């Protein structure tokens, strides 16, 4: 949304407040007719952001956020739903780090299934902020193959420079 318009993204991240005015010592919502141009523009950003979010969601997610009245409220709900709280993210990252650390090709698993599982773990860790060195991933893949692949692992290790090969080529 930031690429569409920074004002729209600002409405999502910082939230929107309806313009108010003080009348007889009470703060009340300002009538639309007395809004300033920048207040109208901020309201338009809010509604455009809400529209973009609504159009981006599948049916289940749409109904999850339907009761939200502000874009920031929708965004926060979507974020918690998909990423979890900081404690959930930390626990998930720790779990994935453990899964990565103990990754081994399983008995009877095809090379394609092993690659999918490995890529899934690595992509989720990257999404949670983990940074990998290219060689680290290559070495991890080589070490993860089971005994039936030992001869091929030895051949790859001896015939290729592991620093110049991608981990996709190893699978």
Oligomer: single chain
Report the biggest beta sheet as strand number plus sense, adding barrel if it closes: 2 strands, antiparallel
Mean pLDDT: 86
Return the string of H and E elements: HEEHHHHHHHH
Give the spatial strand order of the biggest sheet.
1-2
SS strand fraction: under 5%
Shape: elongated
Low-confidence stretches: none
Structural class: mainly alpha
Give the key terms.
mainly alpha; 63% helix; single chain; 171 residues; 2 strands
Walk me through this protein's architecture.
- The chain is mostly helical and 171 residues long.
- It is built from 9 helices and 2 strands, in the order αββαααααααα.
- A two-stranded antiparallel ribbon has the order 1-2.
Task: Provide a compact summary of the structure.
By secondary structure, the chain is mainly α. It is built from nine helices and two strands, in the order H-E-E-H-H-H-H-H-H-H-H.
Q: Helices and strands in order, then pairings?
A:
Blueprint lengths: L5 H9 L5 E4 L2 E4 L7 H20 L2 H7 L5 H13 L2 H16 L9 H17 L6 H11 L5 H10 L7 H4 L1
Antiparallel strand pairs: 1-2
Helix pairs in contact: 1-2, 1-4, 5-6
């Amino acid at each position: 949304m930031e690429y569409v318009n920074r004002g729209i993204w600002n409405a999502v991240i910082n939230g929107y407040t309806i313009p108010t005015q003080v009348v007889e010592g009470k703060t009340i919502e300002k009538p639309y007719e007395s809004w300033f141009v920048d207040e109208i523009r901020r309201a338009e950003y809010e509604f455009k952001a809400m529209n973009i979010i609504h159009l981006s969601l599948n049916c289940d997610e749409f109904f999850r956020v339907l009761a939200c009245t502000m874009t920031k409220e929708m965004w926060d709900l979507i974020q918690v739903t998909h990423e979890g709280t900081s404690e959930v993210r930390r626990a998930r990252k720790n779990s994935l780090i453990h899964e990565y650390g103990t990754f081994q090709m399983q008995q009877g698993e095809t090379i394609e299934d092993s690659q999918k599982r490995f890529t899934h773990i690595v992509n989720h860790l990257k999404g949670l902020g983990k940074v990998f060195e290219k060689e680290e991933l290559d070495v991890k893949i080589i070490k993860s193959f089971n005994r039936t692949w030992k001869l091929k692992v030895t051949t790859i290790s001896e015939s290729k420079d592991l620093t110049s090969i991608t981990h996709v080529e190893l699978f």
